[in-house]
């Protein structure tokens, strides 16, 4: 067992050392080789996920750059993401497949008593958040294009009985244009040291690597146009609907708040939230803490059409003893003038965009349109 108090505070914005404890990762270094015949050479770090580290690598067999996603040991067996990617490999032709990851290879590596799954896919660029960070005015044509591609990806998943479950700006990445060169040779490392100067435990790396896309700026040229929806760690199948998923709090669909059975409709709700964010440059809902605080916030944004379903669900939850505390503690006074259409930039956003958002943001999941139906909306046609 690693005693983290024995180690220096990390100054580098990389993964925490606790990730290397039992059930986590084993050390990986720049220049390491993995795969059959040492096919993949680690060049840099591409990102950090909740259950994975993502590395940029060179595929020496195909002479291309790839993404190497290393899953934590305790998440590697019967891995959900691998199952989804393999299912998509067998999926019939669909326009949305080009906006979903393609699995090139996968294998397991065992070191330091940990067996981790390696997923090899296309190396992608920055996510939506990093690309648009600090830009409040976004060209409508770009917002429309991203929404259309995201909708195609969602429709492809749903057509194959798959629900993504965690759509947010960090899981939507741009495909690298041919004209852009990633700074793969610029590696930022943070040394790992014990406070007493003693040697490191075997499980710990000598250094951690800062993701290469951290704090970068990207030229908003027309080449950044194709997106890919990634990360299937919260995915579920339509045939096996849960009542809970891990999701970004401000993207939480109403049915999850009330712990109702979840369906493909959760992706449509988050699509509406993301489209609003693409179009306006601001989040639809912002809150911290108890997800029940979203109930009045949703009513404020969606309006009277949400009242019946929200009230019925609220009374059912109280009657069934879903919550033990008093509702008044987390149900603040409603504020006026906060509907979708009251956004300061409303006049700069087309009616078709708001009509599309409205269609997605139906609080009753049984009445939310399917992804295929939304493809007929003028905003994305």
What is this entry, summarized?
Keywords: ATP-binding, Kinase, Nucleotide-binding, Serine/threonine-protein kinase, Transferase. Helices cover 24% and strands 15% of the residues. By secondary structure, it is an alpha+beta fold.
What would the keywords be for this entry?
381 residues; alpha+beta; 9 helices; 15% strand
Side-by-side strand order of the widest sheet: 1-2-3-4-6-5
Q: What portion of residues belong to β-strands? A: 15-25%
The main β sheet shows up as: 6 strands, antiparallel
Helix fraction? 10-25%
Quickly give the structural class: alpha+beta
Q: Report the radius of gyration as a whole number of Å.
A: 22 Å
Mean pLDDT: 88
Total number of strands = 12
Termini Cα gap:
56 Å
Number of helices: 9
Description:
α3 (140-159) packs antiparallel against α5 and α5 packs antiparallel against α8 (351-360). The chain has 381 residues and is α+β, with helices and mostly antiparallel strands. The chain has nine helices and twelve strands. The model has no long low-confidence stretch (mean pLDDT 88). A hairpin with a 4-residue loop joins β3 (52-59) and β4 (64-71). The protein is 24% helix and 15% strand.
Draw up the topology in text.
Blueprint: E1 33-34, E2 40-48, E3 52-59, E4 64-71, H1 80-89, E5 105-111, E6 114-122, H2 128-132, H3 140-159, E7 162-163, E8 172-174, E9 189-191, E10 207-209, E11 227-229, E12 236-237, H4 254-257, H5 265-280, H6 294-302, H7 307-319, H8 351-360, H9 371-374
Antiparallel strand pairs: 1-2, 2-3, 3-4, 4-6, 5-6, 7-12, 8-11, 9-10
Helix pairs in contact: 3-5, 5-8
Keywords: ATP-binding, Kinase, Nucleotide-binding, Serine/threonine-protein kinase, Transferase
GO cellular component, one term: nucleus
InterPro entries: CLK_kinases, Kinase-like_dom_sf, Prot_kinase_dom
